[in-house]
Specification:
The chain has 193 residues and is of the alpha+beta class.
Amino acid sequence: MDILKIIKEKETSRKYKKKAISKAIVNDIIESAVWGPSVHGKQPWRFVFVRDNSVLKKIANYLLIESEKKGAGANILLHQCSDVVAQCGLVVLAYTNGDFIKMVKRLTPSYGAIGKVTELSSASAAIQNMVLTAESRGVSSCWFAVPLLCAKGLNEIAGEKDVELMALVAFGYSSERTRRTKRKDYSQIIKEI
């Protein structure tokens, strides 16, 4: 399938069928993450793939409980994320591992902030690979940042430490027809020199 066609037609889904994602498709998603572009080939990421229904329920319940503790706005978004996780067939917790930041701080201490952005950019590119690979296999996704508000608890559920949560991505077979957000006019977002 043409990559530009996938990009243009990809929809974010927040409602999923109760249908397992095959191990072959999960393996393709994993492989696409591993082959994501990264700064100096450092691959400053770690991805936790959650397929176990009991762990998915635990994550969904944790997000729901946390949503009740948060203020206006965040509570709604966390509740929505909880609902999505409860329905999907796969959650990927995406982390940066700090490896590149440590390396650049040894070379040039002032480069630490740029190192963090670079790690986030690399992990984001790997996530985009996963999302597009899933879409090409008929699997929808929803990329969330709001779970960062409760990263500590999610890290405990995943058994992760010494890494920084940067996203939660849900995957599954969509049970809804969504529409793409209207794109801004190119003149508003693109400048050619």
